[in-house]
Amino acid sequence: MKRVIVITGATGTGKTTVSSYLTDQFHIPRIITHTTRPKRPGEQEGVDYYFETPETFKQNHYLESVHYANYQYGSSLEGLARAFSKSDLVSIVLDTKGAETYVKELDTRVSVLFLTVAHPLLLKERLEQRGDQLEMVKNRLASDEYRRDLTLPAGLSGIATVIQNDKWDTTKNRLDEFVAELTTPTSPKA
Ligand SMILES: Nc1ncnc2c1ncn2[C@@H]1O[C@H](COP(=O)(O)OP(=O)(O)OP(=O)(O)O)[C@@H](O)[C@H]1O
Ligand SMILES: Nc1nc2c(ncn2[C@@H]2O[C@H](COP(=O)(O)O)[C@@H](O)[C@H]2O)c(=O)[nH]1
């Protein structure tokens, strides 16, 4: 059965880092989503995102789309099909609103990881260290979406596996266990 690991949580909690680990360690490809935000240094078209203008953004067919801190983001049916052509088990990085939509739309074909950190101050430091523009960090941390995504939403409670991503070695161990449960045929989660 095809399955999507939805990785969600606040900005800077490490969602993309976790998704890259799943690709490198377990060959789980990521669904590439679309955004109208400008590229960060080092980001590549079709690898990190499909970078769109507000006009081209409208031309895709979305399973869900959101506004996040003044930009548009969406996961297209085309992007989903492209990832599933590589593997029956894929991941996607979403804000919590998108994660709730995925659970509603794909139901038992979704496994959710919700990432947190011990203190939100860590997130500001991580965004700055990542090289985000200071103005962008300021706007993002002042957004309703940022505050919303700090807490596990009711719609994901009892569904999501929560991982506190403070120490990367601990997170890696939790991820290894999570994937083992998903991919063991006798496991209730498989
Ligand atoms: N456990 C960790 N300890 C220290 N730094 C980390 C850890 N996990 C991730 N990081 C770093 O934190 C920064 C943010 O991580 P990442 O880009 O994966 O977050 P994100 O949740 O995808 O963010 P966004 O929602 O803004 O795209 C990156 O520079 C990453 O290398
Ligand atoms: N609901 C969706 N959320 C998405 C999608 N693609 C990314 N995201 C989330 O947006 C924020 C900001 O991302 P950033 O790359 O600008 O830092 C973050 O929470 C992502 O997880 C999407 O297609 N749908």
TrEMBL record:
| Record GO terms (molecular function) | GMP kinase activity
The chain positions of domain Guanylate kinase-like read: 2-180
Q: Which InterPro entries match?
A: GK/Ca_channel_bsu (IPR008145), Guanylate_kin-like_dom (IPR008144), P-loop_NTPase (IPR027417)
User: What GO cellular component is one of the record's annotations?
Assistant: cytosol
What is the protein's name according to its record?
Answer: Guanylate kinase
Q: Which reaction does it catalyse?
A: GMP + ATP = GDP + ADP
Sorted UniProt keywords:
Kinase, Transferase
Q: Which PROSITE patterns match?
A: GUANYLATE_KINASE_2
Record the organism. Secundilactobacillus paracollinoides
